[in-house]
Amino acid sequence: MTKTILVVDDDDSVRKSISFILYLNRGFKILEAEDGLVGLDLAKKEKPDLIISDVFMDNLNGFMMLESLKADPETAQIPVIMMTSPTISAGAWKTGAAIEYLEKGFTLDDLLVVVDRVLKIELANEET
């Protein structure tokens, strides 16, 4: 079954590039959101297998979106990869949620490695 990934980023070119790479290289179904509010709404409606989100966005930033997702039993188990600066991923911001960080400036190979790892972890959890 094809996995669905929600890509949330207010930078149109970044969002579309990530979406294209994930679709082209792995055949994932891709949903896109231009900010955290739209991302939160799509996540609640579509229940994707993974969310990849920028941190700094207008309307609702990535951490606020994550907090809302984790507070809702319907979306709390969706894994999230946050795209952020090295300072944040080094621990400057703590969310308390089990999330992955992908430091900005990542390569497309880095993206695919992290996505594959997160989805394999989720698949292993489903099988146990």
What this model shows, in words?
With 128 residues, this protein is of the alpha/beta class. It has a single domain, classed as Rossmann fold. It is built from 5 helices and 5 strands. Helix 2 packs parallel to helix 3 (62-71). The protein starts with a strand and ends with a helix.
Order of helices and strands, N to C? EHEHEHEHEH
Structural class from helices and strands? Answer: alpha/beta
The proportion of residues forming helix, as a percent range, comes to 40-55%
Radius of gyration: 13 Å
Q: Beta-strand percentage?
A: 15-25%
Question: What is the domain total for the residues?
Answer: 1
Number of DSSP strand runs: 5
- Quote the distance from N terminus to C terminus: 18 Å
pLDDT averaged over residues = 85
Could you give me the name of the CATH homologous superfamily? Response regulator
Global outline:
globular
Oligomer: single chain
Strand order of the largest sheet: 2-1-3-4-5
Q: What is the CATH topology? A: Rossmann fold
- Low-confidence region ranges: none
Number of helices: 5
| The CATH C-level class name | Alpha Beta
> Per CATH, which architecture?
3-Layer(aba) Sandwich
Main sheet makeup: 5 strands, parallel
